[in-house]
Amino acid sequence: MTADDWITPRRRARGTREELPAHEVRTALLDLLSEVGTVTATEAASRLGYSSGLCSFHLRQLARHGHVEEAPHSGGRARPWRLRQDVTAADRSSEEPFGDVARGLEDESWQRWLAQWDRAPAAWRQDEAFSAVAYLTPEEMSRVAGVIRRALAPYQDREQRPLARPDGALPVALIVRLFPLLPQTESGPDPQEG
Question: What start-end ranges are recorded for coiled-coil regions in this protein (predicted)?
């Protein structure tokens, strides 16, 4: 699946993204962004085998047509790009949700890890999967999410800056889902009863 597959006909009709003729470099850039999340033209050139100027040109074309946007960064000359992040909660409930795609990819990655665990280097034959149920208010749930985000913040620039990665670093899936466990509707029993 390419990033173009995520651009639903409904979005095109709403005009958030304009049609852009298919091009080998643009397709490769969208695929790369869907894989790694954020990339500079220089990093894309290194990964894809094109010149940084060509990647920069096509990233700007993709941005002009609403497919990508500049990612937040701490200044400097690096200009990271990402897939456009303009889906609101209302969009998620009314369209084919990206969340379903992301959850499917997460589940697929987890299954691949389980299938290949015994072939991983010994130091990596571990995972830190866990789950918990905590009784929280909406404000507390937001605070917990904030704590997790702050804990991960020191490591997130490594995606855009490969040279900041220590030797032996590999991409690690970090999946956190905080959501209330709502009682079942009238069609089923309330899990808090009985």
Answer: none
